[in-house]
Amino acid sequence: MKNILINLSVVMSMLVISSVSAQDFQGIATYKSHRKVSIKMDSTKVTSAMEKQMQEMLNKQFQKTYKLAFSKEMSIYKEEETLDAPQAGGGMMFTSFGGGGSDVLFKDTKNLEFTSQKETMGKIFLIQDSLPNYNWKLEKETKNIGEYTCFKATYTQEIEVPKNNNLSFSVVESDDEPEMTTKEIVTTAWYTPQIPVSNGPGKYQGLPGLILEINDGSQTIICTSIVLNPTDKLEIKAPTKGKRVSQTEYKVLVDKRLQEMQEQNRPAGRSGGGEHIEIRIGG
């Protein structure tokens, strides 16, 4: 009986696909993101109230809203701008290298290319590179997200993480590099063939339908609303302003700047000890 219901869902989805594919359609999908973050500080240096305040600030920092404007083969993904400014707590300040609402991600899913416009360190960069190749495994499991029937797909990869923590990192006043190990991460996507575009939030793509939910073990991004064929035609073009660099070149620039900031903020004559701050993501 379950197989019959799944087959009926597939047939209905294909009928919708035939109807929508006949149109030169566009759409806007709204996504909300949430990342599991916890913070642990030296109790001899910071009160529980200050630690709680910083925890709340971190949680808010990782709760964002995005808009994906898409056509059959192209899209623009952008964070909705907010009026909230970065806050300080416990004598510390959170520093962001991205421009937040000013960043734009353009995807060309036909040619598997992307252009990311980022405002970083007071400069605008155009990062142009190939889209990631996700080796998706299509599963039989289904669920509804809103009015859409979604199918499950998974992608497995190995990444390097600190050996003593689960997807976490520590900010410690020390020159010692953390011992690393490899960890298998499973990313789970839920896509709907009822919207036949090979697209989704961030750089995710490569499935036979729009991705409405994605979870990589630490962050969840879920679609909260979709508007198909909006009254006003969408302009979906790659950004052109900024210094053109590859993804690798951009990472080198950011890593160099982070190292410079670490050196500038280190107290003179001190290379170890001090306050210990552990920030854990996804565990």
- How many strand units? 17
How would you classify the quaternary structure? Answer: single chain
Distance between the termini: 38 Å
User: Main β-sheet, in a few words?
Assistant: 12 strands, mixed
Counting structural domains, the number is: 1
Overall spatial form: globular
Strand residue percentage: 35-45%
Q: Note poorly predicted spans.
A: 14-22, 85-99, 166-174
Order of helices and strands: HEEHEEEEEEEEEEEEEEHE
Mean pLDDT: 78
Tell me the structural class: alpha+beta
Strand ordering within the main sheet: 10-11-13-14-15-1-3-4-7-8-9-16
| Discrete helix count | 3
Can you characterise this structure?
The chain is an alpha+beta fold and 283 residues long. It has one domain. It contains three helices and 17 strands. The protein has a twelve-stranded mixed sheet. Strands 2-17-12 form a three-stranded antiparallel sheet, with helices on one face. A two-stranded antiparallel ribbon has the order 5-6. A hairpin with a 2-residue loop joins β5 and β6 (92-93). It is globular, with a radius of gyration of 21 Å. Mean pLDDT is 78; it is low at 14-22, 85-99 and 166-174.
Secondary-structure topology with pairs:
Blueprint: H1 2-21, E1 27-35, E2 37-41, H2 48-61, E3 64-70, E4 74-79, E5 88-89, E6 92-93, E7 104-108, E8 113-120, E9 123-130, E10 137-145, E11 148-162, E12 168-172, E13 180-192, E14 210-215, E15 219-228, E16 243-245, H3 247-265, E17 276-281
Parallel strand pairs: 9-16
Antiparallel strand pairs: 1-3, 1-15, 2-17, 3-4, 4-7, 5-6, 7-8, 8-9, 10-11, 11-13, 12-17, 13-14, 14-15
